Amino acid sequence: MWRAFADIIRRHSHAFLASTVAPASANQDTGSATTTEPHNYEMQLLAKYNLSSNSTNSNDERIRAIAKMGHLCWTGGTDVAEFAGKLYLPDLTAILENYMESLAVKLQVVKTIAEFCYGNKTNQNLARSLSIIDSLINQMCTQEEDVEMRRWSLHALFFILIDNDINQAVTMRNPNLKRCLRAGKKDSWEGWEHNEGTELAFMLKLTLAI
After folding, report:
1. Which of 82, 85, 80 shows the shortest CA–CA distance to 41?
2. pLDDT in tens, 31-69
């Protein structure tokens, strides 16, 4: 079982890295940070980004800040991801649930949530307690024509649910789950290694009639 789990994680991490195009500044920051001690990651994360749509920062600046958070978590390991989760997941949730928020900002939030929760049970559980699971599903329902948002939302859900029975049970209670998975299964996944709608249905032992 564990060997199969490790293989799934490895395949999806490759898909994530292949599909993510980070801003140049984020790539540069992440590249230099890989040689830094964990507490220096924390110092970078502690420079509390003003993520609110009411801030003076432009949406492009906010997107770069949110992307940088995710890349630091991805490369920084468990301690850094959990530190960032406590600090920023509530803010990211508020952005995702704000119906007036820019869709471009929301899309980056979804990508970053995936990086926060990748292989991290603590952040998976925090995502559940913040109702991120339902927020992602609701986002897919309200933006049904946005294929890119659906693909990344399903991808984030995968990392929130994998090897987490409680999160899977919570997800199964959402009445819109099958509708979103069916839509995702029919989407084009060109450029991705797997169809995330199909992968999630398999994980949750669901049969999807198209």
Report:
1. 80
2. 433 434 445 655 555 555 556 666 677 888 889 889 988
pTM for this predicted structure: 0.78
Does the residue 210 lie in any domain? no
List the CATH number of the domain containing 21: 1.25.10.10
Distance CA 157, CA 110 (A): 9
CA 154 to chain centre: 9
Share of the chain above pLDDT 70, in %: 72
Q: Chain centroid to CA 142: how far?
A: 18
The count of other CB atoms within 10 Å of the CB of residue 17 is 10
List the domain range (segments joined by +) for residue 35. 11-203
**CA angle, residues 142, 56, 67, in degrees to nearest 5:** 55
In a domain, 35, yes or no: yes
| Position 19 in a domain | yes
In tens, the pLDDT along 159-196 reads 999 999 999 999 999 999 999 999 999 999 999 999 99
